[in-house]
Amino acid sequence: MADTKQPHLNGAYYGPSVPPPSKTFHRPGGGGGGCCFNPFSCCCSCIANCICTCICQILCTLLVIVGIVVFICWLIFRPNTVKFHVSDASLTQFNLNNNTLHYNLALNLTIRNPNKRIGIYYDAIEARAFYQGQRFSTVELQRFYQGTKRTDNLTAEFRGQNLVLLGSNEMSHYNTDRSSGTYGIDVKLYLRIRLKFWFVKSTRVKPKIDCNLKIPLSSNGTTSSGSVYESKRCDFDWR
């Protein structure tokens, strides 16, 4: 038998040789390089951060300055709320016939400015009278300037007739008021005012005054119920 050995194999056969690992290269700016490979983007990021930091510092400084100025102004002026009273009220007619209300109401208003350094310009005063949520009359009052530590008196007169639509519950309240001789009437004052600080005048503000009144019906100076109207302080709302 012939010898089948091949001398050039020289032992066992292990397959082809493994090639060496290939080298990888990173392109500049292709990711993973950071600011070292893209200095332009790094500079932009630093500039944006600096701008944001400066803006935040400026805003914080302005807020602190505004707070200090407001606190100093409060210490100097010590503003107090103006006090409104309906010192007297006269109701001589208040009859509801066929959804038409006939009324005759007169009010004396007392306005007190307790501030020492703040004057008030009353550029507009609108008085509205309501019964059971229904407005039945509106009058314009005289505008004026009120100095510091001063009390002024105004008169509001509501007289005439107007259509008033009341539901069953409101009619029930009306019948109760008519039986008692005292009517619950709401008077609201809508103001447009300016404040005067020394020589500086503020912009117009529009506060609202709410006066919830209990007014006895009177005839010839006497009331049928024997009750007497009592002075009422109104609620001040800056809105």
From TrEMBL:
Start and end residues of each Late embryogenesis abundant protein LEA-2 subgroup domain: 109-210
Keywords: Membrane, Transmembrane, Transmembrane helix
GO cellular component, one term: plasmodesma
Organism: Buddleja alternifolia
InterPro entries per record: LEA_2, NDR1-like
TM helices/strands, residue ranges: 55-77
Subcellular location: Membrane
Membrane topology: Single-pass membrane protein
Keyword Lyase found: no
The name this protein goes by in its record: Late embryogenesis abundant protein LEA-2 subgroup domain-containing protein
Keyword set includes Transmembrane helix: yes
Family matches, as Pfam families: LEA_2
Principal location class: membrane
GO biological process, one term: defense response to other organism
